[in-house]
Design goal:
homodimer; alpha+beta; 12 strands; 15% helix
């Protein structure tokens, strides 16, 4: 009997349940420069929460602080339910290898009750997914797992800094379609991973690669599992921008949209750079 | 001999050092509707970190998850240094009353080394502070501790919903000057508190008060203590906006600017509402 193999993303973010201590392992498929792709780490943490027998409701927010590099191989996830009430749960997860904590995360899960809805944000206009060429210059393994289609500000990190606006630097803004390379239905796990799938803003602005690492990543979920099931999509439209780079740290803020125009998630991160 | 009395804000956010367990207490001066002003709680947590003997560097990011109401009175702060390396520190703080955890926070401190600087964000144009009338309709005690001067979208929460744009709702965007009512030099503590000093976006959008509570707040600091000392300011220009309200939760994103045009902090939060 044929069984459908797992999607690479699901293999990469697999966790084995423990009591309070769960286990995961890094994936070569989602490897970055000096460690696993931060989005895969964040999604693995989120998966441990979603699959936790005490979990109730949908992810509302996840903040992941990357404390130290994660080495290739297995890691432990210490999962703690900090506080629960009728409609929400507060979680804390520590990812460790041996005695070394590499990542600490806090999350809130919530029962998303029907309410007044209003979406002041404007859907970014974009050339349709099918009409945009996929990005083909991926070097890092994790980038190869995504189908990135840049609508605006396709990165050109090998050209050196251009002086194409009055600041002397290129724009920090990017608009792109993003899906898993092997199509996979968008769920909270892939939203979490994709919220870290933008290239470093500084690469866009300076049009060159510099040493770079995300320090803290926060994603808010504006759609629950029912909403995502109704969207039934395998790619989304994403925008990202930066506000400032100063004294070795810069920010990023992003939005993840369904093709139909629903804002599914917002995300922000602060990252180290050397430049 | 005359001693200068503490600023109310410093009294409100005072902490008493312990070993890993510190103590604070709620302040009637910074009380909100059903508990302390979340910005004061966040600033108290940040103060425990800044005053911690092991603290090194400047605050880079603080995320505060509000798990349960904090009752009037004392609370414990369980402060843990999760990981430190040469240039950064990762902290976790749990605020508890008895056995009940009411708040959990994670923070990163960093040595802010000189680097390339670039500020793509545009300084919001505004009528100067001195030419704007202070907001005088404060009801909650904490609001009275601030000098709020609305440049755009002065809240009018008693008028009921107006249909003054095509969505049928008012704008979620606000621009205001903000300082402590008794002027106090802006530091990381006041930046932290002021990043929660915007009124709920839903109050602006619906132009009415509804049950509301911040669930998670994240602030990134783009200026270190030296930068803030050089600015030497007692008020700042702040903008806030929202992107979506859906199934009982809505977001907020904000920027805190020095009057001279430096982006000091960016902030985002997700909040519960009933509407």
């Amino acid at each position: 009997m044929l069984t459908k193999p797992n999607h690479l993303f699901d293999d990469a973010t697999r966790v084995e349940a423990g009591d309070s201590r769960w286990q995961g392992r890094t994936s070569p498929d989602y490897w970055a420069f000096v460690g696993p792709f931060g989005g895969a780490t964040a999604a693995t943490i989120l998966r441990a929460l979603i699959e936790h027998p005490q979990a109730s409701g949908d992810p509302l927010t996840l903040t992941v602080n990357y404390c130290a590099p994660i080495a290739e191989g297995p890691f432990d996830l210490d999962v703690r339910l900090i506080k629960a009430n009728r409609s929400s749960q507060h979680w804390c997860v520590e990812l460790a290898q041996g005695a070394q904590i590499a990542t600490i995360a806090t999350a809130v899960f919530a029962e998303r009750r029907a309410s007044w809805s209003h979406q002041p944000a404007t859907f970014p206009q974009a050339t349709p997914f099918a009409q945009v060429q996929p990005y083909s210059k991926a070097v890092a393994p994790w980038v190869k797992q995504y189908d990135l289609r840049f609508v605006e500000d396709r990165p050109d990190v090998r050209s050196g800094t251009k002086t194409d606006n009055k600041s002397g630097f290129a724009s920090a803004f990017t608009k792109l379609w993003i899906g898993d390379r092997a199509p996979r239905k968008i769920d909270a796990l892939s939203l979490m991973a994709m919220s870290d799938a933008f290239f470093g803003r500084i690469f866009h602005v300076r049009q060159e690669m510099v040493p770079f690492g995300t320090v803290s990543l926060t994603t808010y979920f504006h759609a629950d599992a029912d909403d995502l099931a109704k969207e039934d999509i395998t790619h989304l439209l994403a925008v990202a921008d930066a506000k400032t780079f100063h004294k070795s740290y810069g920010d990023q803020n992003g939005e993840l949209w369904s093709p139909a125009g629903r804002l599914l998630a917002t995300t922000t991160q602060i990252a180290y750079f050397k430049a």
